Structure to design on (461 residues):
């Protein structure tokens, strides 16, 4: 495309609790914007066609594949990436700790996506059966762990939160 | 970056109509889970797009004054599944759309996109066919409403004329009141899968639950577009709720459907599925309607 024909648009959104504005190329995906403009590299470029879930981010409380979400659509939205789960002194969240404890990680490429989906699932406060959890986690591909450890980590956090609520 | 020539963002339905007339080559993008992937694969590379994703006025499920269920075309599958009106009156539609792709796809995929791309495997389509859904289209001449069956013109082609867009899917009161249904999607895996064949059956039973007052059998991937097993429905209407009727359905539907071989599955497997899924979906629909099939 010729340089003079390029279309740009201003996008203002809240990313991990902070309001941000940038000019984006209208052809950019949300993955492109988060990685290139904001250096949020927990958002992975995997299949780029909405199959593997490595690029998952939370938009207004729901998980989306950012690779098939146009950056211009993010205007006015509230976005959470894995970086947003970090505590004030760099602490890990309960879900991340459970992933470490249950060895739900090997290469780590799918992990940010899985953890954000786990956040959406667990923030609902509901108790799910294993089958329900499997279905809710089914939008992510992991080529290392065989999924069992991931399921265990999510379930462990779910039960721990339930217990804490009493 | 996607290989896109230009994007025109609509600010309202009227604006979308104007943009579509102004840019006749442009394609509509709703959630983009089909369009953006086609662009990525190169099949739609270099296209112009009219984005309607930002039009919140086209989202949500409402009950009209006439008790018809109106689903805004941009309502996502996850929101349809969670919607109280859908859960109460047409739960089978919620169950059907909850089988699309995976959770993130269901968050972005819209019922309007699922119907407008004109593909036979759309998970919502067979159930919408089974409910005699209506498609609301808005264009330069205003709003027109067409039955879903005539909306599909052929594989990948729907009845959208210059400047028109689908604005809602409507399930009329008469098509859901007293009906109970069930949808079965057959695929090689449970998630991130396109249906090999899908079947949605709904039934209305007599007061004593012994007679089939009405039956509708909708299919995906049993023909080039979603379809109804009309000949079977006529034969089965008025029959007893029995194992005999169930077997009759399994046999008769084979005369209605015209599946073909594809890389996903053979024609023979699909014929077998058309018969088996209809029988199983019928059985479950009857059970949900309070009836019982002996044997």
């Amino acid at each position: 495309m010729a340089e003079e024909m390029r279309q740009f648009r201003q996008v203002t959104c809240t990313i991990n609790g902070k309001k941000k504005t940038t000019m984006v190329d209208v052809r950019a995906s949300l993955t492109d914007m988060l990685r290139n403009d904001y250096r949020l590299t927990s958002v992975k470029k995997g299949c780029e066609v909405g199959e593997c879930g490595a690029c998952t981010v939370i938009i207004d409380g729901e998980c989306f594949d950012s690779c098939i979400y146009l950056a211009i659509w993010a205007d006015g939205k509230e976005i959470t990436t894995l970086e947003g789960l970090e505590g004030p002194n760099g602490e890990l969240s309960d879900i991340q700790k459970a992933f470490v404890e249950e060895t739900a990680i090997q290469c780590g490429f799918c992990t940010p996506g899985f953890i954000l989906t786990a956040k959406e699932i667990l923030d609902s406060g509901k108790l799910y059966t294993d089958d329900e959890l499997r279905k809710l986690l089914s939008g992510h591909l992991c080529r290392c762990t065989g999924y069992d450890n991931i399921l265990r980590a999510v379930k462990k956090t779910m039960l721990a939160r339930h217990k804490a609520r009493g | 970056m996607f290989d896109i020539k230009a994007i025109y963002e609509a600010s309202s339905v009227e604006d979308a109509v104007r943009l579509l007339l102004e840019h006749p080559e442009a394609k509509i993008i709703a959630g983009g889970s089909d369009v953006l992937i086609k662009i990525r694969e190169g099949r739609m590379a270099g296209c112009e797009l009219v984005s309607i994703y930002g039009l919140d006025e086209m989202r949500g499920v409402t009950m009209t004054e006439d008790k018809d269920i109106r689903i805004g075309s941009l309502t996502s599958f996850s929101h349809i599944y969670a919607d109280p009106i859908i859960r109460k009156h047409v739960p089978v539609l919620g169950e059907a759309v909850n089988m699309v792709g995976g959770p993130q796809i269901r968050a972005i995929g819209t019922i309007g996109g699922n119907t407008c791309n004109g593909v036979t495997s759309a998970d919502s389509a067979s159930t919408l066919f089974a409910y005699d859904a209506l498609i609301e289209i808005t264009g330069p001449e205003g709003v027109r409403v067409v039955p879903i069956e005539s909306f599909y013109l052929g594989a990948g082609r729907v009845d959208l004329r210059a400047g028109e867009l689908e604005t809602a899917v409507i399930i009329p009161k008469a098509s859901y009141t007293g009906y109970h249904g069930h949808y079965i999607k057959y695929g090689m895996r449970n998630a991130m899968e396109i249906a090999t064949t899908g079947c949605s059956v709904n039934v209305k039973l007599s007061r004593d639950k012994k007679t089939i007052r009405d039956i509708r059998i909708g299919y995906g991937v049993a023909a080039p577009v979603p379809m109804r097993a009309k000949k079977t429905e006529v034969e089965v209407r008025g029959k007893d709720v029995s194992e005999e009727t169930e077997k009759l359905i399994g046999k008769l539907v084979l005369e209605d459907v015209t599946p073909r071989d594809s890389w996903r599955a053979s024609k023979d497997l699909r014929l077998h599925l058309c018969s088996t899924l209809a029988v199983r979906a019928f059985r479950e629909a009857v059970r949900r309607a309070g009836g019982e099939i002996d044997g």
